[in-house]
Amino acid sequence: MALDKNQIAKRIAKEVKDGYYVNLGIGIPTLVANFVREDISVEFQSENGVLGMGPFPFEGEEDADIINAGKQTITTLPGASFFDSAFSFGMIRSQKVDLTILGAMEVAENGDIANWKIPGKMVKGMGGAMDLVASAENIIVAMMHVNKAGESKLLKRCSLPLTGVGCVKKIVTELAVLEVTSEGFKLLETAPGVTVEEVKNATEGTLIIEGDIPEMILD
Amino acid sequence: MIKRTVKNVSEALQGIESGMTIMLGGFGLCGIPENSIAELVNKKVTNLTCISNNAGVDDFGLGLLLQNRQIKKMISSYVGENAEFERQMLSGELEVELTPQGTLAEKCRAAQAGIPAFFTPAGFGTEVAEGKETREFNGKMHVMELAFKADFSIVKAWKGDEAGNLIFKGTARNFNAVMAGAAKITIAEVEELVPAGTLDPNEIHIPGIMVNRIFQGATFEKRIEQRTTRKRA
């Protein structure tokens, strides 16, 4: 069975290690915070200027001045701090943020990513994504393996305007966990009940399969 | 003490004319100078170039200026959440320069800090870098970006004093702190204006030298764009 969005987030949460400062993008990445182990220390950064983000506020306690980059009302946890936008991207560029998790429309086998524009159709802007992918050392992409028409989104070359070049390290989709290597997408794990053959059929880019591929462990 | 106070929003915005370039602080609707935006609507100035991370929503923030066709060009990083914006952009009525958010912030900060240009890795290899100088530093490619040149910068702060010193609250600091002092004239609207000496100098985020005109906004709606909550257990 292919994973749902929460299960993708749950699998990615396993990549979050003790002592990490983490930036979460909008969409599936935001859900990752719900599945991070409670026995480790992690701080979430939001590029609009907060470190130490907490859960949504209780009803009636929303503060218009405390939001995340998705413009959602949030709370802060003990140890949190606020800063301006230039400072926020300073800590991203200088690689103080250990892990960046974001969504994508397409990823290429060389690690290129496209997630900000569909020419003639959708132009919302890149927000902070270009800064994040150009600077982060450790980038995990949460995405669907195929689009609604069944076409692969893991390609030899991206067809959409790029957000960044050669930057994606790891991808978690509804079908698999993959690593971007110099030879192409290396299959690390398959979703429970998903065959290697299914992953192969859903991947347009070069897929490297070495030995037995383990099934993802979600719990 | 040098006093930076002006009576009200209309005095604060004196000198803003059609065709000018204006920076406006805020992220989404958080920390936007709402009183000044309302006054820009009243002034009916047109052909504005606005530098702002976002473009508001249809009926609030910069969306109000868009509805009146007062904006010629927007320089932003993210412009979703605004149907009128999308319509004007796709029809070609509105010019849009999309800029990576960190680059946008640094172009403000560079102007504020008197630095004409800088190199950033953001956007290398993408259409953002087209026509720009690129250079390798420490084995990595970077794109040269220029400091903004704006006529006015309009920021919003939580507290300010007569000397123009500013303190922001929460994530409303965002672009406000980097736009203060980044244009020829900086206007600050604050929720609470206090006499000089009231604010602790240790806690000032932006010193008054960066602010030419300060006033207390008459009203603040402080609209929430995405009200997300959790239930009490």
TrEMBL record, chain A:
The keyword Glycosyltransferase does not apply. GO terms for molecular function: CoA-transferase activity. InterPro entries: 3-oxoacid_CoA-transf_B, CoA_trans_fam_I, CoA_transf_AS, NagB/RpiA_transferase-like. The keyword Cell cycle does not apply. Keywords: Transferase. Belongs to the 3-oxoacid CoA-transferase subunit B family. This is 3-oxoacid CoA-transferase subunit B. It comes from Flavobacterium profundi.
From TrEMBL, chain B:
Coiled coil: none annotated. InterPro entries: 3-oxoacid_CoA-transf_A, CoA_trans_fam_I, NagB/RpiA_transferase-like. The keyword Transferase applies. It holds the Pfam family CoA_trans. One of its GO terms (molecular function) is CoA-transferase activity. Keywords: Transferase. This is 3-oxoacid CoA-transferase subunit A. It comes from Flavobacterium profundi.
